[in-house]
Amino acid sequence: EPEVTQTPSHQVTQMGxxxxxxxxxxxxxxxxxxxxxxxxxxxxxxxxxxxxEISEKSEIFDDQFSVERPDGSNFxxxxxxxxxxxxxxxxxxxxxxxxxxxxxxxxxxxxxxSIL
Amino acid sequence: xxxxxxxxxxLSVQEGRISILNCDYxxxxxxxxxxxxxxxxxxxxxxxxxxxxxxxxxxxxxTVFLNKSAKHLSLHIVPxxxxxxxxxxxxxxxxxxxxIIFGKGTRLHILP
Lengths: 116, 112
Known about the structure:
The complex is a heterodimer. By secondary structure, chain A is mainly beta.
């Protein structure tokens, strides 16, 4: 079964540094998402991306965050200047446009981001 | 702003018995409800969904019930198996391709 793959599985970064989290969505999917889960809290929506532009973003997704689909297969999340509170598990997800599928968003296994 | 609420952080059920996980929501615009299952060190895995025009959806051992008037849904697992031990997230969206709003999750322990 096709999977969403995320790299790296764990990223340790100094506060203030830039970090890029990478995702390879399922190949025929058209909608892409980033979510995060701070330890002990719920999974929160960050941003959705369709047709090479942001469809929707949450309040969390401020100017320090950006997303890109640089080459038609990868989908990246960049945090420009990391803060301690950015430490979390970041999940990438993708989906096929309704009504072509009953399947909702498929999630990757996440990247654990630790800010020191 | 808890639009999707799972009030039980954990639940223990004997193997072979029925597990019932509950979820409440506040946003009447939600049109699509989902349950995801999550093991440690893995991402959420889709389990079952239901659209707002239905009140029940069944897939093998898993059944989801939706009560729109009460803004409540539940997931029934019968019979419960050891591999069902995981965190279960109730989730909802306004449209199928829209962002998913998650509850905090319920940790299910299946006891031998």
